[in-house]
């Protein structure tokens, strides 16, 4: 073999033989010690978590609603209309929420500068050119972080389950994720009812499962996966599978994204809002059986359970326990669950938006 490798060169063959002999004579024994998990797992998680809380170095201004985008394309001074200005701020707010609920001052400036750079005609006539945009965006974030529940209840819940740091991090009580049942038990304590939260979800949602599925039929990849799975199942398996599938696809009927609420497999969520992380590798298995789940907030595992049902109700409850306002990109779905399915009301609740009432009329 050596002759074949070094054909025509006796010198190289001899040199290689000597090298092999030296390796055989000098035996080195290595003893490997296991590295504690926290030394390599936790720092990596923290680095990812920190990175995902910050805006990217180059923030891309998202597209605006058609009416606003048309005015901007025509170089109209939209800042002079409070209605148009509000819509622009709302879109910027939603885009920033993809990364953090607690932007730094530098990030506010970064975003409004990007806006002015793309649409120079929106510049303020006085000052630095963007201060009014900066203040409007800042006020929007402050308003959206308004409390969901009474301050005394907030304090008690935070003492029991942990606190949200000033930068949006979640410091959970204890070192291990809690069982999901503790979250809904806490909300049941805050909002007492003759029927507990889980039963209300089961009873209230079961009656609309067929219509939810009908409304999303053929409109998404998830609906296609569900349809294929359904053909493979026995009749007695269908009720549970239908329930899970409808619960997962509920955001679609409000034109909201499922992956803002539920992630599957290795797609770990770094959202600052409560999200459900499914332990299985694909949606078909998540529909077919009760897979392990965890609820994550800011990249931290808050609690663990089994099945989509437990994940959704636990993530919903986390909004109350940690005093979080619903994110704009999932507000319709969560408001529908709260007000219509679980029958939870708050002092000062406004009337349901028309977009939600129209959907309710289709479902009931």
Automatic annotation (TrEMBL):
<protein>
    <submittedName>
        <fullName>Uncharacterized protein LOC114427801</fullName>
    </submittedName>
</protein>
<feature type="region of interest" description="Disordered">
    <location>
        <begin position="156"/>
        <end position="177"/>
    </location>
</feature>
């Amino acid at each position: 073999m050596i002759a074949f490798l070094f054909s025509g060169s006796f010198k190289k063959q001899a040199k290689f033989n000597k090298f092999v002999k030296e390796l055989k004579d000098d035996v080195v024994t290595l003893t490997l010690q296991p590295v504690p998990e926290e030394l390599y797992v936790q720092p990596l998680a923290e680095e990812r978590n920190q990175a995902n809380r910050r805006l990217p170095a180059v923030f891309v201004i998202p597209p605006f609603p058609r009416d606003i985008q048309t005015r901007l394309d025509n170089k109209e001074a939209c800042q002079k209309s409070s209605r148009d200005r509000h819509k622009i701020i709302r879109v910027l707010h939603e885009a920033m929420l993809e990364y953090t609920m607690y932007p730094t001052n530098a990030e506010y400036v970064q975003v409004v500068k990007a806006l002015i750079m793309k649409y120079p005609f929106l510049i303020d006539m006085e000052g630095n050119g963007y201060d009014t945009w900066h203040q409007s965006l800042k006020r929007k974030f402050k308003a959206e972080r308004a409390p969901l529940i009474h301050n005394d209840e907030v304090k008690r819940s935070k003492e029991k389950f942990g606190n949200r740091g000033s930068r949006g991090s979640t410091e959970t009580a204890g070192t291990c994720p809690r069982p999901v049942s503790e979250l809904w038990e806490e909300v049941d304590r805050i909002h007492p009812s003759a029927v507990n939260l889980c039963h209300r979800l089961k009873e209230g949602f079961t009656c609309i499962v067929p219509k939810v599925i009908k409304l999303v039929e053929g409109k998404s990849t998830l609906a296609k996966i569900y349809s294929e799975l359904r053909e493979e199942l026995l009749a007695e398996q269908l009720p549970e599978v239908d329930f899970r599938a409808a619960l997962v696809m509920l955001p679609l009927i409000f034109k909201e994204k499922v992956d803002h609420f539920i992630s599957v497999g290795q797609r770990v969520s770094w959202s600052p809002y409560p999200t459900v992380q499914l332990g299985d590798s694909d949606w078909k298995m998540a529909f077919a059986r009760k897979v392990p789940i965890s609820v994550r907030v800011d990249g931290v595992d808050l609690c663990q359970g089994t099945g989509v049902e437990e994940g959704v109700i636990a993530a919903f409850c986390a909004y109350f326990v940690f005093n979080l306002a619903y994110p704009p990109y999932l507000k319709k779905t969560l408001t529908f669950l709260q007000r219509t399915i679980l029958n939870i009301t708050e002092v000062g609740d406004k009337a349901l938006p028309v977009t939600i009432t129209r959907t309710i009329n289709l479902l009931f």
